[in-house]
Amino acid sequence: MMPRECNATTGRPGDAPHALTPRQQEHVRQLHVDVFTKYREVEEFDDGYSFRYPSTREWLSKLEELTTYWKGRLLAWSVELIAEPQQDTIHLRISGAKGAKQFIEASMQQPPEISKRYVVRPLVRKVLRGYRMLTAPLRVKPDFVIIGAAKAGSTSLWSYLSQHPSVVPSFVKEIYYFDLWPGWARGGLWYRAFFPMALQKFHREHVRKIGFATGECTPCYLLHPDLPRSVFEVIPNAKLIATLRNPVDRAYSHYTHNVRRGLETLSFEEAIEAEEGRLRDEPEEMRVHKNFYDSKFNNFSYLCRGLYAEQLENWMSVYPEDQLLVVSAENLFTDTAATVERVVDFLGLPRAAGISERGSSVSPPSLELNRETRDQLIAYFRSPNERLYELLGTRFDWDR
Which class is domain 134-392? Predict the structure, then answer.
């Protein structure tokens, strides 16, 4: 479906600033069909959507052409195109106070002549979900969980592990079963429906003899103080992996991510100054109410997410020490092969050559952090970092 045009001076739907020939109209229409149906993933926000595509010349050309077309017409909305080569990904985000979501949702409805594919696809997904629920009692629980931290390389590690021949990842990377309603309210079978069948495990272990492990990656798990006991009740034998990044870099990466998504309008210095006021009541709510979730806390917890010691202590008070592995994100970024091998060994799997050479989703901050601000944050985190070093018995090079 073609978008409604926007008047060039008001930004409201109206006449197009430049008329298109029938051939050009068909070309733009086909671009819409491709962009709104052939994406890898879509993420919904309050004011719009973000789509993810493969980072290829073909897709970059299509997206640049379409966003150029839109920017002359959809003036009241934000149209962003973000290339992340290290993730092999291009993101398209469309947002706006009025009409943006309706425009996108209408654009995702296909013209009659090509509608069959996009009637069948949701139906297939629904059937598969139903099948997984019916077979949930025959499915295994996760052997490992990557619990966070957010913006600390957990997605990269997940990507590497998913390439291992012995690893069968969950159907969805981030399940949010333990920390968000209605996930936990749906029960244990709903959770198990995201994992492979026990028969698949038997086949890999006893027929192919290559080992087996399955798991999920939800980076928000690390932060929630009430989660460890809930997780232990369901999967007491699971191995936990925490990826920790210099809390200064983690905070800034978190901030730049929010800026790209259009969620943050303050400067970084203003945002960290405002954090305490923004999140005044949320930490206590998290302690009192199980599965408490607040979008403000999820989005604007730049500094408190870097207080790793107290977060890990919550998990270590419940899980045995030999079931928790802490990985340095810096090591994952700079010495990928050795770090991945360490994780594979921790999971008790055979090593597999070449995994770390197949690409990752590491995305360092795209903006340069002010030196004065960095020094202030290094000082802020110095004491919490010392507490972490004592807890783990190792030091990270985070003082620069």
Answer: alpha beta
